[in-house]
Design goal:
By secondary structure, this protein is an alpha/beta fold. The protein contains six helices and eleven strands. 27% of the residues lie in helices and 24% in strands.
């Protein structure tokens, strides 16, 4: 939920909500304002009566209660790739679009932040190339942690992707946790971007401040 001057004057409430292809827009709003956006399930698809789960529906409404959101292993089986504790702004989105945004005004700002990375049906070599590109561009230099959402790869491909992730983040000096059910999956948990979050690994847990005032 975005609280602009016009909203505070009671002229309306605007919510910028979505995921994947909308990554550019979410980062543009983050870069050029202090507004909060939401990375979460689509009304027309993920919240469709035929496919939505109780958890997806529940997480949608939880985002507007003003309470912090806790994501731990009760929601999905989390895997720790690098241990530690980190606290900072939650940012990020689709890996392909985050990579394509490098060098543009819409490049994700990860300084003192915890980036969220998600993808869908990408080949293992592409995941490796994009992560390496982000690393060489300095995206991971000053992060406080990394969370990896559902990558929606075929089982065999995911096994290879998991090896890439383990090797890539093996020596990370910040916490890295994977298998958050965020984006292309059911349940699909929504999260606010641009708010403070804390990532721990003992146990694996992500606590996110509310996106509304």
């Amino acid at each position: 939920m975005i609280l602009s001057d016009s909203i505070q004057r009671g002229l309306g409430i605007f919510v910028f909500w979505g995921y994947s292809d909308i990554t550019y827009l979410l980062n543009a709003i983050q870069n050029f304002s202090d507004l909060v956006t939401f990375h979460g399930p689509m009304v027309a698809t993920d919240l469709n009566d035929e496919i939505r789960t109780v958890e997806t529906k529940s997480s949608f409404f939880t985002l507007f209660t003003g309470e912090s959101l806790t994501y731990d292993s009760r929601k999905s089986s989390l895997t720790t790739l690098a241990h530690g504790t980190g606290e900072g702004r939650l940012v990020g989105g689709n890996l392909d679009l985050l990579t394509n945004g490098l060098g543009t005004p819409f490049q994700v700002k990860t300084n003192a932040a915890i980036p969220l990375i998600e993808e869908v049906a990408e080949l293992v070599f592409r995941i490796d190339v994009m992560l390496t590109h982000l690393k060489q561009a300095g995206v991971f230099d000053e992060v406080e942690g990394v969370i990896i959402g559902d990558l929606q790869a075929e089982l065999d491909e995911y096994g290879e992707i998991k090896k890439v992730l383990q090797d890539f983040f093996a020596s990370a000096p910040y916490p890295v946790v994977e298998n958050f059910h965020i984006v292309h999956c059911q349940p699909n948990y929504g999260v606010p971007l641009g708010v403070n979050a804390k990532l721990t690994t003992s146990p694996a847990r992500l606590v996110i401040d509310s996106g509304v005032m």
